[in-house]
Prior knowledge:
The chain is α+β, with helices and mostly antiparallel strands. It has helices at about 5-20, 25-40, 40-50, 55-65, 70-85, 90-105, 120-135, 165-175; strands at about 105-115, 135-145, 150-155, 160.
Amino acid sequence: MAEPSTIARPYAEAAFRLADAQGKLAEWSAALANLAAVAADARVRAAIGDPNVPAAKLAGLFISILAGKLTGESENFVRVLADNGRLEVLAEIRAQYEVLKNAREGTVEAEVYTAFDMDAAQVADLVARLEKSTGRNVRARVSVDKSLIGGVRIVMGDKVIDGSARAQLAALETALKA
């Protein structure tokens, strides 16, 4: 079977093209987030995996759970996914859509891991520095990781900036062994 990312790509691109053409990137982002959340529920996953549940019933399940939160286009999108047996890759579709949306908007997601809590001013300063160095808008999610000992570790796509004490100690250990 193909990788989920390979299966999800054409659906994510189709949703992005439609949303971009209509100027509704944020609305589709919210709809895909809601759909992915529904698909992550254990009971819904069981229904998706049950070969005795018809595609129309699966689509109806998603649409009824999210009643009032989906547009006609997003309901049709659910039906297409159900008809093609692709509801199980909704989380990956959403992830790929967000990458396309962020690229269009000139935004990059940054995961910031810090040894200690950062206040709003510190986060704002870090974001400003990252925006200056990348030339893009940065949306940061900050979480505490006590194992870093001190400093921060930043992950932006495939780029990692590790200014943690743990990384510096590891580098020192390597240098001393050489």
